[in-house]
Amino acid sequence: MTTLLALALRLPLQNVLMAAISTASLAIGILSIAAVSGSPFGPIVYTDELGERVFNVVPWPLPMLWVVLIINSRGVARLVMRPWRKTNYYGFWVIGIACALITIFALGFEPFAVIAKSYWVWQAAAGTANWFRTPWVSFLGWFLTALAITALSIPWLINKHPVKQPMDYQPLIVWILMNLWPALGNAAHGLWAPFAVMLAANAIAVTAAIRGARW
Fold it and tell me: If you ran DSSP here, which 8-state letter would residue 112 be given?
């Protein structure tokens, strides 16, 4: 709710609602395909730890998680790229950085979800290269999913009548809190490598975002 309400301060309400609906719908579609076919993330089985499922396939919190990830990662990327907002490739860089941020989140969230919380189980073949039980191909799936959802939802996130607005740090604050959740969970369960990766990567991202916002 805080993510959508903050977005409504600079976009029309219909844009905010359509951005949320399109992001959640695309997430449900992609995650459903993944659960049935194993693509693009790999062979995954969701447990009952996340509660009821949409269409008896996808746990209901996951589409909401993707809404928060997509909107706030893009907000952080816009802060990072603010000094270069008038360049020709600004939009592509924003999309790329947002997808990279989501993939970094996945590096910490997957061990937390699989080992600490048992939200899902990976059924990769024995000997498959993995990161704390998560096949490495899954992170490519995270990146491609983020790219697809962002590209298809971005028309609703563009203000057709932009006006000068005060600097918005809300996406950065939400992003920090979102990453602290699995990071601290990993630390509590002795998963120090994912904790360190998230801490280092997000320290760089936060520094770049604050520097860009002050430009």
Answer: I
* Region label for 54, one of left (φ > 0), alpha (ψ between -120 and 50) or beta (otherwise): beta
**Tokens 């992001």 sit on residue:** 23
For tokens 């909107």, the residue is: 71
Identify whether the C-beta of residue 64 lies closer than 8 Å to the C-beta of residue 24: yes
| Amino acid, single-letter form, for residue 48 | D
Tell me the two tokens of residue 7.
């977005």
- The token pair at 167 is 């600097």
| Mean pLDDT in residue range 147-174 | 81
Output the pLDDT for position 164.
62
Tokens, residue 154? 């971005």
210, 76 in Cβ contact below 8 A? no
Vertex 105: Cα angle to 210 and 165 (nearest 5): 35
Q: Tell me which residue has tokens 């809404």.
A: 67
> Are 108 and 198 within 8 A, CB to CB?
yes
Tokens (6 digits) for 149: 């959802």
Q: Give CA–CA dist 200/120, Å, rounded.
A: 26
- Distances in Å between the Cα of 40 and the Cα atoms of 48, 126, 164 are 22, 19, 40
Q: What amino acid is encoded at 163 in this protein?
A: V
174/64 Cα distance (integer angstroms): 14
Is the previous residue joined to 40 through a cis bond, with omega within 30 degrees of 0?
yes
Residue 128 amino acid letter: T
Share of the chain above pLDDT 90, in %: 77
